[in-house]
Amino acid sequence: MAIILFSCSDIKGQKSDHKYTNDLINETSPYLLQHAHNPVNWRPWSPNALEDAKKQDKLVLVSVGYSSCHWCHVMEEETFEDEEVAKLMNENFINIKVDREERPDVDHVYMTALQLIKGNGGWPLNVITLPNGKPIYGGTYHTKEQWNQVLSQVSKLYREDPKKANEYADMVAKGIQEVNIIKPVSDLGMLTPEVLKNSIDKWKDSWDLKWGGNKGSQKFMIPVNLDFLLDYAVLTEDNEAKVFVKTTLDRIAWGGVYDHIAGGFYRYSTDAQWKVPHFEKMLYDNAQLLSLYSKAYKVFKEPMYKKVVEETIAFLDREMKNPEGGYYAAIDADSEGEEGKFYVWKEEELKSVLGSDFETFAKYYNIKRSNIWENDSYVLFRTTGDEDFVKENDISWEEWAEYQERWQKKILTARNKRIRPNTDDKIITSWNALLINGFVDAYNVFQETAYLEKAEEVFRFIEKNSLDKDRLIHTYKKGSKKSDGFLEDYSFLANASLKLYSTTMSVSYLDFAKKMNQIAKDKFADENSGMFSFNSNDELIAKIIKTDDGVLPSPNAIMAENLFLLGHIDYDKEATQKARAMLSSMISVLEESAYNYSKWNSLLLKTAYPFYEIAVVGTDAKQLLAELQQQNLPNTLIVGSDRHSNMPLFKGRYADDGTYIYVCQDHTCKLPVATTKEALEQLKNF
Q: Which Pfam families does the entry link to (predicted)?
């Protein structure tokens, strides 16, 4: 079977009349509603569905996808809308549709199964299980003919040799359980700079030093990797790593994976040079890239990075913001049944829209016959920086600014007349927490008050709509079922709240972070591994201990980071020790595969190298705090208080005669100083 990796698309338009309607009609997920009028008797995931399978002795077909998944959409049209296929499915299976963004736990369990069975994975994810939920088949996209063959063969196996089917299912289920086994480690002696260096040295062989990113025919941005590498490069003065990060950031921002007309990033590049993207736009990518490009601006002072941040925020506000303050999950890759149609251009269109500006525009965005993509269309991408382009084309900076302003206005106006891709309007708690961090990081660098206001608005939205007393929900949509949040929701939101505290000095954010952290510990703690399970119930066939990074950072690594930071804020040795113990359990895998464990490596960086606390205390703390936040200071916790406080970092330090900065390491502090310059000098020579 063909394996389609990380594929994408969105919802179809509503049909005026429907021959069939199934149980998905009662759901609010755009992806599930897309399938509500298939002739397949789809049901949403629930324990009841598995109970019915046991009563009827039927196999279970679990089909997992998401609204912006292109190949999910293709398989629906070719296969799930076909009455002949539906008849076969309905007679022999209990059929369950899952939105992976609503139920990442179900997706994770069965994606692990698929990877064990086939050695690869992607979406749509289609597994066939026994009535007890244990899988006996896994695959991704299938043509109608392939799917009919699979259904017939698996049904025949179950009827004729149930013993063999059960033995195989038990083996796969055991494999899933073993993947999620983490052995706690009591020896913390491996948390060293040497281990970290070994990890990076092994990773370097995979770097594409010309085009950035990891070598390969497709490229994913994975912001958590570049965020860690940037800190590592600065702290260890590893120039090769620093150049690699800069090359990658430049190539991404120049490439077709960035929307040069409206801002924001697409999902990934379908080629090795970042030219042609898969055109879906996901909130989690854009949220994390806000943080990354903001941090990179601190290091490199590259004007393009500031522009990327500004344009991405403008895109998010314009196209992904709910009127109440939260942000939607995704925008489809397809419109009018074609991938990328909303975003690509034919040469005649560009000439018509741009007039006399076309020639310069075409040079800048590589509009030439050798770069045609599909249907005589072009994806806009760059291969050089503005400074070189202006010089090569003998354009003054004043003319250049006018050119760009004209282009942007003309092209965006023309594009907005097209039929837009659909938007998945779920508001996912963990993804919005990442966006809070993105807004705060942008504010700390550029001191644009509106960015901090946006962060606090998202926080208030989550507090109002996604928090019921002490219970977080994973996704919010008016009228939707309120399903329990996962570890990522609690840990990411606690992390975002800590960032808000560090920037605003508002103790309410610190208290909220502590509250979320404690609830997460109570709900998800796994005694056997010393880690935290992904969900709080045991309805699935295996416990999930999510430790690796993917498009999202590992929720366990974020939990460990939260414990580490709270330990330094409160002088809580138990919290820092817990973080170190969790990290120690990951040393063997992060040393072998830094690419998949960058968030843990980020914590190792904070542990293996000196970590500092900077406390600003006094009536002018806000100003000095802002000055410090604008600096690039890896391995440093920056907090402030403009009043008397009994918190360990502030206790006895407030004075009426001025505002002072205390630079500390492991609770040992230098003499207080009154200026940022002096504090930075102390930090440099601690």
A: Thioredox_DsbH
What is the per-residue pLDDT across 285-332, written as a single tens digit (0 to 9) for each?
A: 999 999 999 999 999 999 999 999 999 999 999 999 999 999 999 999
259 φ/ψ angles, rounded to the nearest 5 degrees: -85, 100
Query: pLDDT tens digits for 373-426?
Result: 988 999 999 999 999 999 999 999 999 999 999 999 999 999 999 999 999 999
pTM of this structure: 0.93
Interior angle at CA 658, CA 653 and CA 660, nearest 5: 50
Q: Considering the chain, what is the average pLDDT of its residues?
A: 93
Q: Sorting pLDDT into bands at 50, 70 and 90, what band is 7?
A: very low
Residues 6 or more apart whose Cβ sits within 8 Å of residue 374: 340, 344
Residue 498 lies in a domain: yes
Residue 363: exposed, middle, or buried by beta-carbon count in 10 A (0-12, 13-18, 19+)? middle
Assigned domain for 445 exists:
no
Whose tokens are 């994976």? That residue is: 257
Residue 611 in this model has a pLDDT that exceeds 60? yes
- pLDDT above 90 covers a percentage of the chain that reads 87
Give the three-state DSSP class for 279. Answer: coil
| In a shared domain, residues 41 and 171 | yes
CB neighbour list of residue 488: distance below 8 Å, 6 or more residues apart: 104, 430, 534, 546, 552, 555, 558
* Domain end among 363, 393, 417: 417
pLDDT score at 405: 92
pLDDT of 219 > 60? The answer is: yes
Looking at residue 131, its amino acid is P
What is the sign, positive or negative, of the torsion defined by CA atoms of 496, 498, 503, 508?
positive
The CA-atom distances, in angstroms, between 633 and each of 263, 553, 556, 566 are 28, 21, 24, 18
> Is residue 329 a part of any domain in this protein?
no
Q: What CA–CA distance (Å, rounded) separates 581 from 481? A: 37
Give the burial string for 285-302 (b: 16+ CB within 10 Å, else e): bbbbbbbbbbbbbbbbeb
For residues 536 and 521, what is the distance between their CA atoms, to the nearest angstrom? 11
Helices 621-629 and 676-684: crossing angle, nearest 10°? 50
What SS3 class is residue 62? strand
Q: Is residue 599 domain-shared with residue 618, that is, in the same domain?
A: no
Say what the alpha-carbon torsion angle 385, 386, 392, 393 is, to the nearest 10 degrees. Answer: 140
Among 417, 451, 466, the domain-final residue is: 417
pLDDT higher than threshold 70 for residue 14:
no
pLDDT per residue as tens digits for the range 102-153: 999 999 999 999 998 888 888 999 999 999 999 999 999 999 999 999 999 9
With a CB cutoff of 8 Å and minimum separation 6, the contacts of 79 are 85, 142, 143, 144, 147
Q: Which residues, in sequence order, are CB contacts of 115 under 8 Å at separation 6+? A: 121
Are 483 and 475 contacting, i.e. CB atoms less than 8 angstroms apart? yes
Residue closest to 387 by CA, chosen among 379, 377, 397: 397
Range of the domain at 557: 187-209+486-609
User: Structurally, how many domains does the chain consist of?
Assistant: 4
Closest among 522, 502, 517 to 647, alpha carbons compared: 502
Write out the two tokens for 648. Answer: 């360990």
